[in-house]
Amino acid sequence: MKHNYKEILDTAIRAATEAGTYLKDTFSKRPEIEFKGKIDLVTERDRKSQEVIFNIIKKEFPGHSILGEEDLNIEKDKELLWLIDPLDGTTNYAHSLPIFSVSIAFLEQGKTMAGAVYNPMLEEMFRAIKGDGVFLNNKQIHVSQSKDINDAVLATGFPYDLRESEITNFEQFKHFLFEARAIRRCGSAAIDLSYVAAGRFDGFWEFKLSPWDTAAAILFVTEAGGKVTDFSGNAFNPFMKECLASNSHIHSRMMEILKR
Fold first, then answer.
1. Whole-structure pTM over 0.70, yes or no?
2. In this predicted model, what pLDDT tens digit does every residue of 239-257 receive, in sequence order?
3. Distance between CA atoms of 192 and 187, rounded to whole angstroms?
4. CA distances from 207 to 90, 169, 204, 250 (A)
5. CATH code of the domain in which 87 resides
């Protein structure tokens, strides 16, 4: 069956916009915080945002499966699967830091075919259909042309279990500090990857991400001319725990630094 990816993307954009508008409208009032782990937060806004997205997708595509971060997991059909992060950057949001996003991806047989990432505070909608390029609002975007790691601005994050696990990203962060121009930590992997696609960042790496964090924005990077793999150079999929994304020019160098 051939799917209408434009219709699918339009639904993702509408769902991301409605969820993002809700988050923006309620942003001025701090939410009540719950804990999934010692430093892993969730709020009622995450759940409400996911409910908004879920209802829109199920109305338009009742036969599709949805895997969301906040307790709406239903039977996973690998043939047609939506991956949604209703609030990527919950810690930022809970502390009134206006850097967060809504991420929605559509996967067919495990591959992202369409996706949208919306930053409601800046009203920036990143969107793509596989093979058709990636757009920020109405303008097509491309990765940067930086070829030297010394000129690169990179982005990363740290896993929520860093207090218990030996895999913390501290050593990798230190190595990159002495190689790159700068490193940023926005607190939303979906935004970080979208910014790689837009040429705002030259590269990104992170451990232990969840599939809904990366599923949409990895499509953006590749459609913008970049590269996404695991740390060993294997083709990336959203269910992997290592994500390395770049403008492609500095990819090999980033892999070398990660192997130290």
1. yes
2. 998 999 999 999 999 999 9
3. 8
4. 18, 7, 11, 19
5. 3.30.540.10
